[in-house]
Amino acid sequence: MRWVNRHARRGDRIFLGALPILLLVLLYLFLAAQRHAANPMDKILPLPGSMADAMSVLLFQKDQLSGQFVFWADTLASLQRLGIGLGIATLSALAVGLVLGVLPPVRATFGPLVTAIAVIPPIALLPILFIALGLGETAKVALIVIGVAPVMMRDIAAYVAGLPREQIVKAQTLGASSWQIMIRVALPQAMPRLLHAMRLSLGPAWVFLISAEAIASDVGLGYRIFLVRRYLAMDVIIPYVAWIAILAILMDAALTVASRRLYPWAHGASH
Amino acid sequence: MSALLSLRDIWVEYGDKIVLERVDLDIEAGSFVSIVGPSGAGKSSLLRVVLGQEVPTRGTILLDGERLKPECGPDRGVVFQRYSVFPHLSALQNTIFGLECAKAPLTARLFGGARRRAMAEAEEMLRAVGLGDALHLYPAQMSGGMQQRLAIAQALIKRPRILLLDEPFGALDPGIRADMHALIMRLWRDYSLTIIMVTHDIREAFTLGTRVLALDKRRHDPHAPHRFGATAVYDLPLRRRADPAPSEEAAAETSQQNDEEEVGNG
């Protein structure tokens, strides 16, 4: 049987998907054990035990200086920045994308501007943001917004502009005005695409969040990773990275589920 | 002769390519005009001009003696071959949309009693096209024929002066197509519609139409084929309006006879 025709069954799929992850974990454990056999004080590849010890301090003990549980404070601060940044980016992408996509004169006027902003590497703007907005939360959120929003705007605008011309004509023959076409024809159809654009933007949003936190912050997942790097504290960095991965996967899954639940017509499945 | 729609000296040009030239047409209220012609003869361009989707390079179009605005409006309904219905709305929502647009300019949604009245009207229209059992289905759950029925219901609820059909049955199976022919004949009679239909199926054109227009180029320059546009080279009036239209079951059979007797008339 050809490989293109081999489809794994559901149970097998879970097993197959878990296999490479398990192998990587085993490989890590093997290498870590080897290093520790040679040097019991090795910090580069910590064993699970030392990771658990280091993390339990951050998870369950209040920091003496700030009086907070460090891990949870970091998570909350990062998620808050990410959420606000991604939220603003999404809302502006929806508004701008709709207007650009539906109204040709607006597209002609502001399309090039959006494109121009989108091609600027956002990290290059970070110094400007820090100078203009200070080192506080605003600059970090602004970096995420500037990094993510233009791409989402262009995506939504292109998607809306690409809706079949027949639909727009049909809506007009049903008496719809430009505004009505925007809110009743374009907006609902842009929503699943918007959730999709959010999923794709999660990766860049995390990059900008970690960058901003690494450079100027006093709390946050990215801040912590870059702080403990100075002490080669791999027993903190590795669990933090794993935690970021888990958060990202959960957000991605939540967006996928939300899209299927809210917009079943867009997924071709039975409703 | 009282013409509902008049086209006077219509030219459509794209750059130096002439698609339609000197099209003069008068279309009477209550007629069913089929437009046939080879590919690229400007059938769809003509329909888009009447629809208002495209502005003719020259010429005027009069609807009820008044010049048409160069954009689409609710006085002209349309059914395309595809993409005529909104995929994010159920059949009922698709049909109500036209009523909502007229009555709620800001929200384009109706509530309470107004909504119930609109829903009743839409349900009746959907029943008339045979979708009484599919009110809450989304277009993705419907067959091609059902989607075209929905597109027709959606257009008819606005009571357009003219219904424009752009190869509406071109993508359907032959069996379904015969059902759709029967449906459109029934609706044409029941709602006293004026219909202009573009088709490449000549049999369909003669079966359904009270008048068949054949578009083609009158002149042909072999060195610059794009410099001459198409116009109505044949204009065949078929049975008169007063004549009893073929019943739904007989629609398919009568096509043969129509071909013979009416071509003689034309």
From TrEMBL, chain A:
<protein>
    <submittedName>
        <fullName>Lipid kinase</fullName>
    </submittedName>
</protein>
<comment type="similarity">
    <text>Belongs to the binding-protein-dependent transport system permease family.</text>
</comment>
<keyword id="KW-0808">Transferase</keyword>
<keyword id="KW-0418">Kinase</keyword>
<feature type="domain" description="ABC transmembrane type-1">
    <location>
        <begin position="79"/>
        <end position="259"/>
    </location>
</feature>
<feature type="transmembrane region" description="Helical">
    <location>
        <begin position="82"/>
        <end position="103"/>
    </location>
</feature>
<dbReference type="GO" id="GO:0005886">
    <property type="term" value="C:plasma membrane"/>
</dbReference>
<keyword id="KW-1133">Transmembrane helix</keyword>
<feature type="transmembrane region" description="Helical">
    <location>
        <begin position="110"/>
        <end position="135"/>
    </location>
</feature>
<dbReference type="GO" id="GO:0016301">
    <property type="term" value="F:kinase activity"/>
</dbReference>
<feature type="transmembrane region" description="Helical">
    <location>
        <begin position="141"/>
        <end position="161"/>
    </location>
</feature>
<dbReference type="InterPro" id="IPR000515">
    <property type="entry name" value="MetI-like"/>
</dbReference>
<dbReference type="GO" id="GO:0055085">
    <property type="term" value="P:transmembrane transport"/>
</dbReference>
<keyword id="KW-0812">Transmembrane</keyword>
<keyword id="KW-1003">Cell membrane</keyword>
<feature type="transmembrane region" description="Helical">
    <location>
        <begin position="237"/>
        <end position="258"/>
    </location>
</feature>
<keyword id="KW-0472">Membrane</keyword>
<dbReference type="Pfam" id="PF00528">
    <property type="entry name" value="BPD_transp_1"/>
</dbReference>
<keyword id="KW-0813">Transport</keyword>
<dbReference type="InterPro" id="IPR035906">
    <property type="entry name" value="MetI-like_sf"/>
</dbReference>
Automatic annotation (TrEMBL), chain B:
<keyword id="KW-0067">ATP-binding</keyword>
<keyword id="KW-0813">Transport</keyword>
<protein>
    <submittedName>
        <fullName>Lauroyl acyltransferase</fullName>
    </submittedName>
</protein>
<dbReference type="InterPro" id="IPR050093">
    <property type="entry name" value="ABC_SmlMolc_Importer"/>
</dbReference>
<feature type="domain" description="ABC transporter">
    <location>
        <begin position="5"/>
        <end position="242"/>
    </location>
</feature>
<dbReference type="GO" id="GO:0016887">
    <property type="term" value="F:ATP hydrolysis activity"/>
</dbReference>
<feature type="region of interest" description="Disordered">
    <location>
        <begin position="242"/>
        <end position="266"/>
    </location>
</feature>
<dbReference type="InterPro" id="IPR017871">
    <property type="entry name" value="ABC_transporter-like_CS"/>
</dbReference>
<keyword id="KW-0808">Transferase</keyword>
<dbReference type="InterPro" id="IPR003439">
    <property type="entry name" value="ABC_transporter-like_ATP-bd"/>
</dbReference>
<dbReference type="GO" id="GO:0016746">
    <property type="term" value="F:acyltransferase activity"/>
</dbReference>
<keyword id="KW-0547">Nucleotide-binding</keyword>
<dbReference type="InterPro" id="IPR003593">
    <property type="entry name" value="AAA+_ATPase"/>
</dbReference>
<dbReference type="GO" id="GO:0005524">
    <property type="term" value="F:ATP binding"/>
</dbReference>
<keyword id="KW-0012">Acyltransferase</keyword>
<feature type="compositionally biased region" description="Low complexity">
    <location>
        <begin position="244"/>
        <end position="253"/>
    </location>
</feature>
<dbReference type="InterPro" id="IPR027417">
    <property type="entry name" value="P-loop_NTPase"/>
</dbReference>
<dbReference type="Pfam" id="PF00005">
    <property type="entry name" value="ABC_tran"/>
</dbReference>
